[in-house]
Specification:
The protein has about 500 residues and is of the alpha+beta class. Helices cover about 50% and strands about 10% of the residues. The structure holds protoporphyrin IX containing FE (HEM). Its cofactor is heme.
Length: about 500
């Protein structure tokens, strides 16, 4: 009776308030964290922590407050962040099978649909990854050696730099094209001229998609895909760019299908077409033209962006720290001279140069938050319970700048990778390629590329800033962390 009386006296505003409180209660109950779940900041009702920035600098503050394993909520999805060398190693290496799956990331899922290598899971991922790895290994040795491809491409890049005749220029797309040509030779069996407008368009679309996927709207897409699909914004550009990129790749695949000779496989696509015939009885392995398209996209995209941006960072550091550039050149001059091109066999004799390349990778911090991961089974980490299916972010930046692992984490210091006698020193906390079962598939190729491109460029040129335009040490955060656009002078030596 009393309750009925109370209800009768409620006006419109009170009804609204009551409804709102009820919704909040439902939200709290629905999003109640499991027992002993990693802690984290309180989230706004319904939205969670979508206003909390997830760049690696903001994450550092959250780590200081909540420890190396903490959580954030976006909408109703919970994300666990793992930071610092010890905890990342525990997750990826000591608990090898616990955090190896990819979650569904709506922004990419609408394009990839779980196919390819980088965003697939289970049996299909295992088969596709194994196949791509063995193909890269095959190209790594023998006559068609990857080293030879890289050496030839180094010469093309040096020629292009020379043609700039010591005038200011932005090396962005020349370097991207050069690095991309290595994986293109493996996948397509040919390289692209730096003046090729269709490949330039491909690289520009890819670059834009990677930068825009770090935008606020793209992150909102992951929380409210249904709503964001109908709203304009950079997330739409990401999708239209990928559609155009895929149609470029489709043309390459179709050309291969028309020219295919099973007795003379020229590249990854040719051997993949043969594999499709072998796997006719095993559809779950995914050897079909659609998966081929996404594997090709993964290899070209992953094989271009990170290595090219690392090399650009290395040039940015050489211009900011000319005394280090001079020391690298002195070592190259002493060990190799000017009469021949550097080869991989020179690496053990160039410890300072090798240390500078490693330090460029560490400070360049190209993939600060790794690729998204998901708990493959119920797991315990740092004393907290993480249920199967929880989205995981391994904060690789926190490993590369871990105060317990690096003498001067915030300073560009090649000494991090040198012992007291000046010999190259391996560091366990050097994890730019991540670790565990999902470790970068192209790690060996990337290391070869970085060494050969960097030493050949520094052997032939001195890099100087355009007066008044010192390249910034601050980068741009998208899916990767890349240098700001810069111009430079390449002075032949
Ligand atoms: C400096 C250069 C590079 C860096 C820093 C880098 C870094 C990474 C990182 C951090 C991951 C995520 C690993 C994880 O989820 O734990 C990854 C994955 C991957 N990388 Fe690289 N990468 C580089 C170059 C390359 C190259 C040259 C290729 C070409 C073959 C490549 C192909 C891939 C692929 C296919 C994956 C997905 C692997 C999977 O999901 O199983 N990467 N890379």
């Amino acid at each position: 009776m009393i309750f009925q009386g109370l209800l009768d006296r409620l006006d419109f505003t009170s009804w609204l308030l009551l409804g709102f409180l009820l919704l909040i209660l439902i939200d709290v109950v629905k999003n109640w964290a499991p027992h002993n779940f990693p802690p984290g900041p309180w989230g706004v009702p319904f939205l969670g922590n979508i206003f909390t920035a997830v760049d690696f600098k903001s994450l550092e503050k959250l780590t200081q407050k909540y420890g190396p394993v903490f959580s954030l909520r976006k909408g109703s999805e919970r994300y666990v962040f793992i930071s610092g060398y010890k905890m990342v190693k525990e997750a990826l290496v000591n608990q090898l099978d616990s955090f190896m799956d990819r979650p569904i990331v709506p922004l990419f899922h609408i394009i990839y649909n779980g196919l390819g290598i980088a965003l697939s899971n289970g049996y299909l991922w295992k088969k596709q990854r194994k196949f791509a790895t063995s193909h890269l290994r095959y190209f790594g040795g023998g006559q068609r050696s990857l080293e030879k491809y890289i050496e030839v491409e180094c010469n093309f890049l040096c020629e292009a730099f020379k043609e700039e005749q010591e005038r200011p220029f932005n090396p962005h797309y020349m370097m991207k094209n050069a690095v991309s040509n290595i994986i293109c030779s493996v996948v397509f069996g040919h390289r692209f001229e730096y003046t090729d407008p269709s490949f330039r368009r491909f690289l520009e679309l890819d670059n834009e998609a990677i930068v825009l996927s770090g935008s606020l709207q793209a992150q909102l897409y992951d929380v409210f895909p249904g709503l964001m699909t109908y709203l304009p914004g950079p997330h739409q550009t990401v999708h239209s760019n990928y559609r155009e990129i895929l149609s470029f790749l489709k043309t390459e695949v179709q050309k291969h299908q028309e020219e295919w000779n099973p007795d003379d496989p020229r590249d990854y696509i040719d051997v993949y077409l043969a594999e499709m015939k072998k796997h006719k009885e095993d559809p779950l392995a995914g050897f079909n033209t659609e998966t081929l398209l996404f594997c090709t996209l993964d290899l070209i995209e992953a094989g271009t962006e990170s290595a090219a941006n690392t090399l650009r960072w290395a040039l940015v550091y050489m211009m900011n720290y000319p005394e280090i550039q001079t020391k690298v050149q002195a070592e190259i001059d002493k060990v190799i001279g000017q009469s021949r091109q550097p080869t991989i066999a020179d690496r053990p004799n160039l410890p300072y140069t090798d240390a500078v390349i490693h330090e460029s990778q560490r400070v360049g911090n190209i993939v600060p938050l790794g690729f998204p991961k998901m708990a493959s089974k119920d797991a315990t980490l740092g004393g907290y319970f993480i249920p199967k299916g929880t989205a995981i972010t391994t904060n690789l930046a926190s490993v590369l700048f871990d105060k317990n692992e690096w003498e001067t984490p915030d300073v560009f210091n090649p000494g991090h990778f040198l012992d007291s006698e000046g010999k190259f020193l391996k560091k366990d906390a050097f994890l730019p390629f991540s670790a565990g079962k999902r470790v970068c598939l192209g790690e060996n190729l990337a290391k070869m590329e970085l060494f050969l491109f960097f030493t050949t460029l520094l052997q032939r040129f001195t890099f100087a800033p355009v007066p008044g335009e010192m390249p910034s040490l601050e980068g741009v955060m998208g899916f990767t962390y890349s240098p700001n656009e810069f111009r430079m002078l390449a002075v032949p030596r």
